[in-house]
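Researcher: I'm comparing several assemblies side by side, and this is the next one on my list. It has 342 residues spread over two chains. Same procedure as the others: predict the full complex and return the structure.
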Amino acid sequence: MNLISPLAIDDTLPAELRELLNSPEGPAFEQALDVMVRQREQHLFRALGQLARDLHDAVRRLGGDLAQEGVPGIADARQHLQDALEMSAQAAHRSLDFAERMRPEAESLAHNAGEVLEWTNGNDAAAVLAREAVQFADNCREGIADMVLAQSWQDLTGQRIKKVASFIGTVESSLLELVRLTGALAGSETPAAVKVSSQEDADRLLSEFGF
Amino acid sequence: MKILVVDDFSTMRRIVRNLLVELGFSNPLIQEADDGESAIAMLRTLPFDLVVTDWNMPNMTGIDLLRAIRAEEALKGLPVLMVTAENNRDQIIAAAQAGVNGYIVKPFTAITLKEKLGKIFERIAASGASA
């Protein structure tokens, strides 16, 4: 069975630690250890303090920018969606214009061809053409009705676009709220008009840690 | 027959109007509203025989419009046909419970519209004959 070897006191250890480990007195050992730990803590607090200050400055800057301009890119994204919605509506309306213009023409062709059929004996070239015209007009009316119905893609896609736009709005307001809350915690002047004194409070608090 | 078409999308209102005309309803007698709120205001002031409404609209949705119609003495007997992309079971049940007369899921065909309208008027005629 191997005994756990005691910590080797060799040259690789810092001088103060070597001295400490060699010290015969218990209280002196404790005291020296405390000093070392405190020194380390000081470094940690200093780093944390710097981090807090950086975060606080960043949030203050971000909060100020966002309050003035909104979350970058989101206004554009919303505008793009709105444009897509309007363009698709325009395109669908153009198709509907066309359908509404063509339907009466098809109806009138069917009507006129019907009249021609009444005046012919039913076997001459005019009658053949008239029957073809009636068939063509009927096909047109059917096709136009289908085309009208097919334009409902605009409504179906438009509803989804509206949902995405509203989702983006929710994300933006949540983000602004988050920044506002973070700003408030950091004591900065954010859109929610945190009191000026809290800025001083924050500075005082940070300075208590020596920053 | 005076028909009110309710939808927040102008394209959809126009499509429904076109289909109704195709089915033989008179174009000048068809009117439009862009949400439930403006629809109920029109229904209170003008006589209508049928409402064709979407579900998902700002201010007042189709289901709220339906409930408002059923809650008003002067309007409660008005036939309401819902034409909507909302196709989940709970919503269809909610519409049925609120007293909808017909329910069409978008996208739909002219034949479906004709069938549902036919059924609505058949039932109205039957209930009118038995009353």
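Model: For your comparison table: The interface with chain B takes residues 89, 92-93, 96, 99-100, 103, 141, 145, 148-149, 151-156, 158-159 of chain A (CB under 8 Å).
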